[in-house]
Amino acid sequence: MLDAKIHPPVLLLALWIAFSFPTRAAELKQPTAEAFQRYVQLTEARMRSELGNPQSFLYFDTLPEEQRNSVLARLHSGQIVIEQMGTLDNGKEVQVPDGLIHHWLATGFIPGATRDQVLALAQDYPSHAQFYTPDVQRAHLLAREDQHFSVYYRFYRRAIVTTVYNTEFSPCSGCSHCRGAKSRKTR
To answer: 134 preceded by cis ω (within 30°)?
Structure first.
């Protein structure tokens, strides 16, 4: 009869066996892709209307005064403010069958940096591996159409197991190359 106490090497071996097999990319089902596309269209429409209002150029300009002042104080103290976002469809949450939408906004303040300097760094994809190591192992531009970029990233994370994500990001839905973006995960 085995001892009821689990020994660490046995537990580690069991975890290694359980998590050592590569996973395959999942293909989106048509209803999932359609719901996500609806979410993107609604979000882009909302953003276009917000950009049309010069009083709400920055996201925190749309917040109530007390909340806006709190965000500004946090930004000026060097914090990065991260908030979960959401877009509603006629006042209701967009339902995504067999899928999840992660929609977040991060805002930071870099004293002394110009917009052009920030954009230059953001668009220098091959340098992201140097600046964001060890999480980013590789990055490069796949395609560009006007201000729409399709980008490859290889992310690396080591915790109990090592996980590598080979991903392609396309932050828009309007251009032809962005509609076919995929994400793959391997361990």
So the answer is: yes
**In a domain? residue 1:** no
Give the mean model confidence (pLDDT) for residues 8-35.
66
Query: 90: helix, coil or strand?
Result: coil
> How is residue 136 written in tokens?
């980013």
pLDDT, one tens digit per residue, over 48-89 is 888 888 877 788 888 899 999 999 999 999 999 999 999 999
Do residues 182 and 145 share a domain? yes
Q: Which of 159, 162, 144, 140 has its CA nearest to residue 20?
A: 162
Domain end, chosen from 84, 109, 134, is at 109
pTM, whole model, 2 decimals? 0.60
The single residue listed with the structure tokens 């590598």 is 164
